[in-house]
Specification:
Elements: H1 13-24, H2 30-43, H3 47-58, E1 71-75, H4 86-96, E2 101-105, H5 115-121, H6 126-131, H7 133-139, E3 142-146, H8 147-150, H9 158-164, H10 169-173, E4 184-188, H11 195-205, E5 209-215, E6 227-234, E7 237-244, H12 263-274, H13 280-295, H14 302-314, H15 317-328
Parallel strand pairs: 1-4, 2-3, 4-5
Antiparallel strand pairs: 5-6, 6-7
Length: about 325
Amino acid sequence: MKHLPLAVPHMTEAEADEVFGWILDGEASEDEIARFLLAMTERSETAEEIAGAARALRARLIPVAAPEGAVDCCGTGGDGHHTLNVSTAVSLVVAACGVPVAKHGNRAASSKSGAADTLEALGLDMEAAGRTAEKTLAELGICFLFAKNHHPAMGRIQPIRQRLGRRTIFNLMGPLSNPAGVERQLIGIARPAYVPIYAEAKASLGTQHTFIVSGDEGLDELSLAGGNELADVAGSEFTMRRIDAGDAGLDHAPIEAIRGGDAVHNAKALEALLGGTPGPYRDAVLLNAAATLIVAGRIGDWREGAAMAAEALDSGKARDLLARWIDMAK
């Protein structure tokens, strides 16, 4: 067994790759891993550590084939706001716009309902969705890459994360380790000041086009409540800018307006959204869908992206896509 350091020093990318290889391979005790993760969280992870840890996870994943131009949109979780499942809804909307979406996610680790929990409550057989992921991605343009199916090394980590009940570096590693190898992403993180650090990690790993975003209140997606930090990452470079709801022609709304609940509550809200219900949840989805459509290269303007996403909802395309996905994933 490897012994993790009692004091957690800042590591180079190569050192983080090695240490997280030990952790993922079960070469350290659960208590040591828990203490190590908390210590890193308390002192804040560096860009080099995030990139190195992600490389360790990538080296151990089970990949899937994806169409050219596939995207992912997800949040790191751990923001404590317990909102409705925005990125899950965005995935359906963007796929309904004709952009293949390789949605990477899991059950809740530190929230009330993760993407997998909500989709299951909507009637999607998660085990079958995992088995048919390549098929549904190729034929429907959407799939759910259940983390446990593609990151077997995470099996020993998930109980530790649930026991800790708070954000750790594993929240940051997941979006950087999509099994479909997507090169275009919208990633929300829970700390606005951390956006450039995370963007530096993403740039180190490389990407065609990725937005790293965080709402000013610490929301791990683009927020309607106020402003948002956005890092625009292309290749190994990134630039910073500010974005708010008005850029997409949408109204501001407080975060309480999209507060979620358990899987059943969130599933009912998503079902209503797909049925055309207006309001802040819809607007939050439109804003984040616009961002995803921009990084996908489908459109270049925020208002145009929101309008395209609205059409996917109002025409029933997103609702019908979910129905076909549930039917195929059996």
